[in-house]
Amino acid sequence: MVRGEPGHVAAARESDVIESALAEDGGRAPRPADLRRIGIDPDFWYPVAASASVPRNKVVAASFAGRRMAVFRTATGTVAALEDRCAHRQVPLSMGVVDGETLRCCYHAWAYRGNGHISQIPYLTRETARPPRGVRAYPTREAGGLVFVFPGDPARAAATPMPDFPRVRAGTHRVMRYSRTVRCHYSFMHENLLDMNHQFLHRGVLGKIRPDLLGYESGPGFVEARYRFTPGGGRKDRGAGLLSAEGFGGSSSPDVLTIRTGYPYQTLELVPDGETEPAFSLWVAYVPVDAAQRTCHVHGMLMIRKPRFAAALTLAWPFIRRFTERVFAEDRMAVEAEQRAWDEQGEDRNHEIFPLILDLREMLRSSGVPLDPAAAVCADAGSCGVAMPS
Question: What single DSSP character describes residue 237?
Fold first, then answer.
C-alpha cells in the first residue's frame, strides 16, 4: 500500500475517516488484539552482545525474551551461545570459564562444546550413571561488530537472512554504537521512531521542527515512511547540525528522513536538502529481555558519512554523541511512561489516530507471536527469572 499525498493532507483526511467511522458505530468497533501482549517472532537473527565485549577466552551473560544465554569466544576465536545453565546443578554457565574450545561450569568443571554437548566430566567413571547429553546451543553469527543469535527454530537459521551493513564494510562511514536497556515493550520503540510527530518532545534539543509526512508504504513485514523536516527557529543543539552535515554554522534548509520498520529491525536515513546521499543512517534492533517482553535492549549503529577531511568528524564526534544521548534520553522517558500506563491499566487504552502508526501496529501484530500467558502472570508478580539490567 502506497500513500503519496502530502503528509498533513493525508493524515487529516484519514483521521477524519476514522472519526467518522467511530461516530457511526458509537465507538463500538471491535478492538484488535492488544499489541503489548504480542511477542516478537524468535525466528530471526537478534543481536545480544557487542563483538568487542566478548574477547577470546571470555563468557558473558545475555538474554532473549526470558531465555538466558551464555555467550563465549573460544581460544581460536569462535563465538558460541549456550543455554545459561549447567545440565548438572543448573548453575549459570555465564559464571564459568572458557577452556580452549570449551566452556567449563564454575561449580564442578563440566565442560561444554559450542554445540552444547558435554565434552568432559572430570570425575566421571564407568560406574557413574549416564550423564545428560548437554544443553541447548543457539546458532550464532557476527556482523557489523555485533554477536547475533537465532533463538527460534534452529532448522530455519541457515535460510533466514542476516542484517547487512554495506556502509560499515565499505569504510565510507564512521560508526557510533549504542547499547541501552529500555523498560518497555519493543513495539513502543518502533512507534516512537516511525511517528515523527513527537518533535515537541525534543524542542530543547532540536528547536522548532515541522515534520511533514510525504507519504508511506506498507505491506507484509514492513512499513516505510518519508518525512520532510523543516526548521522553524529556536535553539538547536550544535551536535544536531554536525550530524546532518550542516557544519557548526547550522542551516535552515529542510531535510528528508526515510524511516523503515523491516520486521524485526528498524532503519532511518537523513538526506540533506540538495543532496542525494544520506548524511547518516541508523540501524537498530529492540531485543526483548524478559519473558513478558516489557523490557527490551536496544542495539543500535549510527553510521555517519565521513567528510573529505576526516579530522572534522573527529572534532564533531563529542558534540554528536552528546546530542544523540540527549534525544535518546527524552525518547526513553516517553516510552517508559507509556509502558507504566499500560502496566497500571492492564491493557492498551491508547487512542491512536495517525494512519501510519495504525498500519505499523497491524503489521507488528501479524508478524509477532502470542505471548505465553504464564509470562504475564510472572511479570505481574514482579519476577520473570531474568535480572533487569540498567
Answer: -
In DSSP terms, 61 is beta-bridged to 70
Q: What is the CATH number of the domain that holds 297?
A: 3.90.380.10
**Helix or strand run (H / E) with residue 271:** strand 265-272
Supply 247's cell numbers: 557544519
DSSP state of 243: H
117: phi then psi, degrees, rounded to nearest 5: -75, 145
| pTM of the predicted model over 0.85 | yes
- Domain of residue 67, residue span: 46-156
Among 156, 185, 207, the domain-final residue is 156
Contacts of 135 (CB under 8 A, 6+ apart): 82, 83, 85, 86, 87, 93, 112, 116
Q: What is the DSSP letter of 117?
A: B
pLDDT in tens, 131-149: 788 999 999 999 999 999 9
Helix, strand, coil fractions of the chain, as percent rounded to 5: 30, 30, 40
| 102 touches 120 (CB < 8 A) | yes
